[in-house]
Specification:
Length: 497
Amino acid sequence: MSKKITTILTFAMLGALQASAQQQTQLSYWFDTPVTLKGQQIWYGGHPEKWTHKKPISAGDTARNPDPDWESKSLPIGNGSIGANILGSVEAERITLNEKTLWRGGPNTRKGAAYYWNVNKNSAHVMQEIRDAFAANDWEKASQLTRKNFNSPVPYESYAEDPFRFGSFTTMGEAYIETGLSTVGMSDYRRALSLDSALASVSFVKDGVRYQREYFISYPANVMTIRYRASRPGKQNLVFSYAPNPVSTGTMVADGRNGLLWDARLDNNDMQYAIRIRAINKGGSLSNEGGKLTVKGADEVVFLISADTDYRANNNPDYNDPKTYVGVDPLATTQDWVSKAEGKGYAQLLDEHYKDYSRLFNRVSLNLNDAANANDMPIDEARKILGSDKIIGGTANTFEDVERLYRQGADYIGCGPFRFTTTKKNLSPVLGLEGYQHIVDQMKSHGINLPIVAIGGILESDIKSILATGVSGIAVSGGILNAENPVEEMQRFLKLV
């Protein structure tokens, strides 16, 4: 038991020692300067009063990009349905939002879908002739027949008819999180997107306090999750607001004690969409009055955002029915998603997100280094530098890693991650309890007797079950350092072993 206690105490400080023997690499890109808010509500061109009488046909409908910061400096995240771009301003985070089914146009605009879809029916007999021309390599004939017979009178440009029948994808609006901070005296700014975890982050130091923001959009939960925290308690003074797309109309209402609901319809085709936002604060106070979420003096805040439309896929549509593509209640779906996400909490949502995402991302890897593990310095090289009297460990994710490090003469193994963590995100996949048990059993069967220490995203509640797998000890970093009182948190960890 004393060995395990020593292991925990040692590994709480081991990160710095291990980092000196590793070349840390991440699949990520980053910026070291914040973005301004000059692109805020760009669809108004900075002058919303211009759209009092006539709104733009489609938000952002221009050949010239009026928001270059969004295009070149934002961090894009998404899950296939919900998308967001993180701008990372210090004074107020700006987040552009979209949902894949939010389209203008459709069956109940202008002459209706029947006219749109059937406009080329009279040319159907030409299809075989076009195919025959292609088969005979007569490209000119095929091209002429296509141009002559399949030119639709429906324009692609939104300005060509009113209302626009063809439709266009449109933005879901923008969210803003005002912080009450300024860039005066700000340092160590970093805005990054981890490609191997689909996690965006913003961090900086202001008046001796380190502020951190994290963003991801979970496919399993269909919820965007945002976490705001700082190195000192009580520093989160935030105002969350939403700026809607100008080609829609809706209402923002309070959703319970800690949430907001935007219920709206596009003005072109009456498509209904909903955005549901919920905030969970640790410490301080929270209110949702005046269409905003206001947080004062909190230690940490997590925002959950989900969105949906009333669109229903229909492979056999009735084009005489204006609601042939309607069938989903976005108020009900967003309520279900956000409520379930709130019940899980941030750590579980992140864990589920990473397991789902990494399963796809890690299907293929490319190693351009001859070293078996490009992140770890070879043990023999480290031994030459440090000498024979120093304890040298290596990082492992599989039994093959353990076996290789054993042959190289490692004194211990740091094995993980147990769950996804930003400090060990270049390790994959997540092992969990079954992974540790499997590796420990293989070590026994091969006669490998090395201390193996569990690492990566370990919480207080995990300790007993992890030690039961047969590992020698645990390493804890974020679980202690991110606690409100790290000393007390360390003492709680020690009591469990």
